Amino acid sequence: MSANPVPVEKRALVIGFLSTVGDIEVLSQVESRLRQRGLAYDVAPFVERVRAANSAWVDARRVDPARYTHLIVVCGPFSEFLMRQQRDIYARFANCVWIGVNLSMIDPTDRFDPFDALLERDSAKGAKPDLSLLEPVARVPVVGLCLAGRQPEYGKRQRHGLAESRLRALAQRHGAAVLDLDTKWPAWRNRQGTATPAQFESLLARVDVLLTTRLHGTVLALKNAVPVIAIDAIAGGDKVTQQARALGWPEVFDAETVSDAALDAALSRCLSPGAKAEARAAAEAAMRQLDGFDAAFAAAFEAQAGKRSAALGSPLSNEIRRRWILYRQGRKSRKGLE
Predict the structure, then answer these.
(1) Does the pLDDT value for residue 1 go beyond 50?
(2) Which CATH class is domain 142-292?
(3) CATH number for the segment(s) 11-134
(4) What's the whole-number average pLDDT of the chain?
């Protein structure tokens, strides 16, 4: 007699690591076919942290095995060794019909194939295209995120943490894909390892909108006809706000006073059909303001050297020195955590 009575109604348990975007697309393909067949099912990723991503997913170690007629193993590599790593799960469903879907069979299938039906992705017998090719996926906005980080020269006026949280929340509310960008140079100072302005601007030019707390993030976005939402992370506004005004670009906000509704409306405007043309026009108008720079630069060489004592002032005050020491200590601490 079977240890687990066979349930009257068919029900599948879909298991796997489900730890990549491709895995999730293949899972969706399997789910759609189960629904088409009118077959009830549950999804049970192996790892608890993955299961936590969807409250409807279950733990294969806790469900009642008697409820299920089919065990469907989805996506990823599969071998005798890997199966034994999850032996407690597989043993609980030994009486089910086992179906393998979109698996890479590491061991030769003539030696190891525990499935009653195997629809492998690849094995010693050959290879088939991955099922993720069949999954229709909607396009979402791609936003660049370019953040300044701490700026100790602004002292207690800094609101960088608040500004960053507002921008990240904005992208999340709209389901946007986020590309982190960093203007720091040389390459070892930035997250992407971008070594030249050309590399940075080529990345920047490919996003739909830039979200930034940086002055040069604002400027270079418009230069590349990318609409930009800037939050000035300095209380009361400072160089980011002033530069946006000089560029004639309206989408600049104060970290402390801007509302979520105002940021949502700004993102809608920046994603509208005419936004890129407006960004390009703002950059072109700003460049025309620089027409006189060559003459001004040439005239600068006619200036006479003056006395510096008043401008140089006294040595750094204790307060400025303290801020600088704290800043350097913070940088060393962060490097130690990397």
Answers:
(1) no
(2) alpha beta
(3) 3.40.50
(4) 92
For the stretch 106-143, pLDDT in tens is 999 999 999 999 999 999 999 999 999 999 999 999 99
pTM beyond 0.90: the answer is: no
Amino acid at 75: C
Crossing angle for the helix pair 275-289 and 239-247, nearest 10 degrees? 90
Predicted confidence (pLDDT) per residue in 297-325, tens digit: 999 999 988 877 766 766 666 666 667 67
- Topology alike, domains 11-134 and 142-292: yes
Q: Where are the domains of the chain?
A: 11-134, 142-292
Token duo for residue 151: 């700026």
